[in-house]
Amino acid sequence: MKKMIEVKNVTKKYGSKTALRDINLDIETGKIIGVIAPNGAGKTTLLKLIAGLIYPNSGEVLIDGKTKTVETKKIISYSPDCMMFSDYEKVSGILDFYENFFEDFNRKKAEELLNKIHVEQGERIGMLSKGKKELLQMFLVLSRDARIYILDEPLASVDPANREYLINTILREYKENATVIIATHLVADVENILDDVIILKDQKLFCYESVDKIKEEEGKSLNEYFKSAFRVDIEKV
Amino acid sequence: MSWNFDENISIFQQITEHISLEIVSGKYKAGDKLPTVRDLAVQAGVNPNTMQRALAKLEDDGLAASNRTQGRTVTADQARIDELKKQFAKRYAEEMIAKLRQIGLSNEEIIKTVSEELQ
Which chain B residues touch A189 with a CB distance below 8 Å? Predict the structure, then answer.
């Protein structure tokens, strides 16, 4: 399969602190990839590097064979791990913004998705619950016809029923020529929809493997595997 | 709404088994058209690539067939479906007998218990 994202010998530092060390990844088109890691291992940094929002100190990130340009940014739909919009804005205003800013934004699709969770266009962001804000952001990002979707912690505040709806939306909207990268701590919720998983540990790549292969080799779920690999040794603390 | 999975076993195996059971139990009959990969993936709450592989496995096993005009269908070969049903029945019977033996029932007692339950 075609390589969509290549991360080559990437190291990223913030001042003297190393956030990621010597990362190498080849990510193919048409896959749903999970990024899981303990807190502070570099998940968000990796996603920002791929999204082209920050630059590595050494190494390079190639999107569809190219380094970051306006063209590569056009094909990436990114949702950060925090809210993108101010509380004063109305839902309709944000839809207008997306429509003006992104040629590939399908407003009708976003409106349909928002109707299902009863978010009115006249509402201000500040009036929405935390979970609905997250869903709104996710639906905007998923309503673009992009080649790469990068979702940083999309599920944290969303209730279990809406979480299922969001995961279903990801599956329904998922296209064979697109790549979806999801960073989350909620491993159990996403493990059935992942092709492969990237696990980071201590700022380095710990493993990049097919989820089915991990299950077969370890005889346990990805969630259990992750917990057993990273369990804090209570005796020693 | 999504299917129930044992999270410790590979999803691929479980999907294959789930659809096989639906064929055996008559939800999808011989020659019936199967839903698309996308629809099945959304139904099951799994990755479409995994669903695609599971359906390919069912084809290899002779339970499904790809047809250029109709998409993917259940095999028209009823004998193949009956054979699979036998395999499932055998496995379930073995599992049940193993459990009854585990609690110390003899063969006669097992037969007696099962026939009583069937009344």
Answer: none
Reported as a single tens digit per residue, the pLDDT across B33-87 is 999 998 999 999 999 999 999 999 999 999 999 887 778 999 999 999 999 999 9
- Give the residue carrying structure tokens 């339950």: B117
Nearest to A193 among B9, B10, B46 (CB): B46
Contact assessment for residue B31 and residue B67, using Cβ atoms and an 8 Å cutoff? no
CB B29 within 8 Å of CB A177? no
| Cross-chain residue pair B45–A174, CB shorter than 8 Å | no
% pLDDT > 70, chain A: 97
Q: How far is CA A221 from the centre of its chain?
A: 21
The DSSP element (H or E) to which A154 belongs, if any, is none
Whether the CB of B46 is below 8 Å from some CB of chain A: the reply is yes
Among candidates B30, B31, B32, B3, which has minimal Cα distance to B16? B3
Chain A residue closest to B1 (CA)? A164
Q: How far is B59 from chain A (nearest CA, A)?
A: 20
Cα diameter, chain B: 56
How far is the C-alpha of B44 from the C-alpha of B55, rounded, in Å?
Answer: 13
Q: Looking at chain A, which residue has its C-alpha nearest residue B51? A: A193
